[in-house]
Amino acid sequence: MSNPDIERLLDFEHVKRLKAEYCRFVDTKQWARLRALFTEDVVFDGFGSAPSGSTLDTFISGISSRLADAVTVHHCHMPEIEFIAPGRVRVVWAMMDIVELFGDRSPREAPGHRGFIGLGHYEDEYRKIDGEWKIAYTRLSRLRLDPMPHDHPVARRDLNGVSENWLRGP
What we know:
It is a single chain. The chain is an alpha+beta fold. The protein has a single domain (3-151), classed as Nuclear Transport Factor 2, Chain: A, CATH 3.10.450. Helices cover 24% and strands 40% of the residues. The chain is built from three helices and five strands; from the N terminus they run H-H-E-H-E-E-E-E. The protein has helices at residues 3-27, 31-35, 56-66, and strands spanning 38-45, 71-85, 88-100, 115-129, 132-148. It has a five-stranded mixed sheet, covered by helices on one side. Strand 4 (115-129) and strand 5 (132-148) form a beta hairpin. The longest helix is centred in the first third of the chain and has 25 residues, at 3-27. The radius of gyration is 17 Å and the shape is globular.
């Protein structure tokens, strides 16, 4: 295997890890770390936490206030990765998310309900900046959305969460 092939495989792995971090940081409410995953000129499309075309600041403000007390689970699977130019990659991810709000709030995606289970895809573009991959564009499209009625069993919130710095070691 040549060096360019090995570099490409390493880039694939970095992009996959970046999306895994995105899901974990959203679910564990690590907003500053989430923000660091994006380019400054990132564009968002199709998100309930911010209108399409939102800036990074608008997205982080929207998602952090909307999901602060929510229980969420985000999964992304089966990446289809294409290099479109040096330092630019596009990926389609199959996705599933669970969003459960508390109190009197209802999600925009399921008015009159406590939450939802969504299935669909992310379409992302990544750019390599100073040797580091960042998300430069992300579009969320749902193929299915199952509203969670108010009488749906309430999620347990007393479970162990992920240790914030587990991967870094002691």
